[in-house]
Design a protein that fits this description.
Length: about 190
């Protein structure tokens, strides 16, 4: 069976992440991706996870403790646009993930936005290792979602092919704006 965009995002990350790596969850939410990344990097690796909502940090903290992977994660209660101030310039990253949109069953007004997402992408690309990947799962059915999708699409299309490979993945015959996945790989 074909994988959902969410599941495929994990497949793409798993292919490149090894124990000891440093990685980023740019949109922590309930911590599903954070916990997945923490398991992959193990105790010798590290995960930086960002969110603007206190509730996200609390939910993620709980999930990480229950899964026994709290130690290797730094939970940052700030927007991902601050990545450049939190992650040192010399730190190289193997991978990062974004789930763009709003947190399901939470405040639908708190959404990721084109300008701040773009700023985060710039900081991540500057720190990405060769063969490293940035995966974005873009939900765009809500107000403001189309503008963010357009930014991501445009940003990805303009990345020079000598330096990056970029793919998209989406079910094109599904109703209700199924998410679109983008994966940027540094050559
Ligand atoms: C689609 S949800 C993420 C779901 C998450 N991956 C999970 O496993 O539950 C998007 C999240 O982005 C967060 N967010 C919104 N603006 C942000 C920003 N500037 N920086 C970081 N996170 C942001 C929201 O608070 C929300 O929790």
């Amino acid at each position: 069976m074909l994988q959902t965009a969410m599941r495929y995002s994990h497949t793409l990350l798993k292919e490149v992440i090894q124990a000891g790596d440093t990685v980023v969850d740019a949109t922590m939410g309930n911590g599903n991706d954070t916990a997945f990344l923490a398991q992959l990097v193990g105790l010798n690796g590290s995960v930086y996870a960002f969110d603007v909502q206190e509730q996200a940090l609390q939910n993620t903290e709980k999930k990480l403790v229950e899964s026994g992977v709290r130690e290797q994660v730094r939970l940052v209660h700030q927007g991902h646009e601050t990545i450049a101030t939190i992650i040192p310039k010399e730190t190289t990253l193997r991978a990062a993930i974004f789930n763009l949109g709003y947190l399901p069953k939470s405040d639908k007004q708190i959404i990721t936005k084109p300008d701040t997402t773009k700023q985060a992408l710039g900081a991540l690309l500057a720190r990405l290792e060769s063969k490293g990947r940035i995966v974005l799962v873009v939900y765009y059915g809500h107000t403001g979602g189309e503008a963010e999708l357009a930014m991501v699409q445009n940003y990805c299309q303009q990345l020079p092919q000598e330096e990056y490979s970029v793919l998209t993945y989406q079910f094109i015959n599904q109703k209700n704006n199924p998410p679109i996945l983008f994966c940027i790989e540094k050559k």
